[in-house]
Amino acid sequence: MTEGDTYDILSEMFLTVLYGAAPVMIVALLVGLGIAFFQALTQIQEMTLTFVPKIAAIIITLLAATPFIYNVLLRFSDRIFDLIVSGGV
Asked: Domain limits at 45?
């Protein structure tokens, strides 16, 4: 196993983490921005208004995106296990 192979595995690992976390992070960002705009427009500064909708949106997104996250992780783990079996690691 060369340095190039190690670099390829590490870069694929980082991309896998980004792809797996992207749906939740994007929804959290959009909900947070929407709540911030709502609070700025109405001057309501309630602390629970920022947390409850964001947590609910994250939970719903996790439930909806679980098959996608599973497939992303499955592809990466299959590649790593194939490398281990073939003696490439």
From this structure: 3-86
Cβ proximity of 76 and 23 under 8 Å? no
Pull the structure tokens for residue 19. 């792809």
Q: Do residues 51 and 33 touch, judged by C-beta distance below 8 A?
A: no
The 3-state DSSP class for residue 88 equals coil
Model pTM greater than 0.90?
Answer: no
pLDDT 10s digits, 20-54: 999 999 999 999 999 999 988 998 888 888 889 99
Number of domains the chain is built from: 1
| Cα 14 from Cα 1, distance rounded (Å) | 19
Tokens for 66, please give them: 């679980």
